[in-house]
Specification:
Number of domains: 2
Order of helices and strands: HHHHEEEHEHEHEHEH
GO cellular component, one term: plasma membrane
Number of strands: 7
CATH topology of the largest domain: Rossmann fold
CATH class of the largest domain: Alpha Beta
Oligomer: single chain
Strand order of the largest sheet: 5-4-1-6-7
Largest sheet: 5 strands, parallel
CATH architecture of the largest domain: 3-Layer(aba) Sandwich
InterPro entries: Cell_Envelope_Assoc, DUF218, Rossmann-like_a/b/a_fold
Strand content: 5-15%
Shape: elongated
Number of helices: 9
Protein name: DUF218 domain-containing protein
Radius of gyration: 21 Å
Organism: Paenibacillus nuruki
Mean pLDDT: 93
Keywords: Membrane, Transmembrane, Transmembrane helix
Structural class: alpha/beta
Distance between the termini: 54 Å
Low-confidence stretches: none
């Protein structure tokens, strides 16, 4: 019964609702305006394909699998560099205000655990992207201190607004500190583009993926063909990463 309810919900809530409406318009126009109906059908199919998890998982998974996570014994670096992924402003936290969004929080936890194992310093890179968002590096520093990381082991780069700036600004700080072998911690889907950006500024990193979105191995079941806003968001994220990688290649 629960799967029937999920199926019905998927076509009552966006984007499933819009898929139903577009398909209804396609049928209505089929005889009177065939060419228009065909265009609507193509748009409907594109919307459907982009909003099902079987497609979003393939796209995100293909990015996440590009760099395997190294074991602790394989770690080789002199600093842990963590990239931000957004933060809220003014929201209550245990020892202040402002919180990391999901992916940024996962990256932060991974960095704290790696620091506990290796003792390496942490450099968190990320600024305040919008007027109503939090400054990622400043919030990260407060939260890492709250998790027991010593202040002497923390560095922040709080001006970057995108991955390219993360790489540029981080490279400057690492050069000033005499550090040159960063372990780069970010989401698995974000690593391929991040590695390319750091390579552009002359830094060879050891990739350490975290914040996985797709199970390994992944299973096939019917609900992966239900449209959902979360699957559409994942598809958009993957496309953004591929376009970003293409842009880096063009610049090179």
């Amino acid at each position: 019964m629960i799967y029937i309810i999920k199926f019905l919900y998927s076509f009552v809530l966006p984007p499933g609702l819009f898929i139903v409406l577009l398909f209804g318009m396609t049928i209505w126009l089929w005889r009177s305006q065939f060419n228009v109906a065909m265009v609507l059908l193509a748009i409907t199919l594109l919307l459907y394909i982009s909003s099902i998890s079987i497609v979003s998982n393939l796209l995100i998974g293909s990015l996440e699998r590009q760099y395997p996570q190294p074991t602790v014994a394989e770690l080789q670096g002199d600093v842990i560099v963590v990239l931000g992924a957004g933060a809220s402003k003014g929201t209550p936290d245990i020892d202040g205000t402002g919180n990391m969004y999901g992916s940024a929080g996962n990256r932060l936890i991974t960095a704290a655990r790696l620091h506990r194992i290796t003792g390496l310093p942490i450099l968190f890179s990320g600024g305040q992207v919008f007027s109503d968002s939090g400054n990622e590096a400043d919030i990260a520093k407060r939260q890492l201190l709250g998790m027991g990381v010593e202040e002497s082991k923390l560095m922040v780069e709080n001006r970057s607004l995108n991955t390219a700036q993360n790489a540029n600004n981080t490279a400057v700080i690492l050069k000033e500190k005499g550090l040159s072998h960063p372990i780069l911690v970010t989401s698995g889907f974000h690593l391929p583009r991040s590695v390319m950006q750091f390579k552009r500024v002359g830094l060879t990193v050891q990739p350490f993926p975290t914040d996985y979105w797709v199970s390994q191995p992944s299973s096939m079941y019917f609900s992966k063909f239900y449209p959902s806003a979360s699957a559409m968001s994942s598809t958009a994220t993957a496309i953004k990463e591929y376009l970003g990688m293409l842009a880096v290649k063009i610049k090179n």
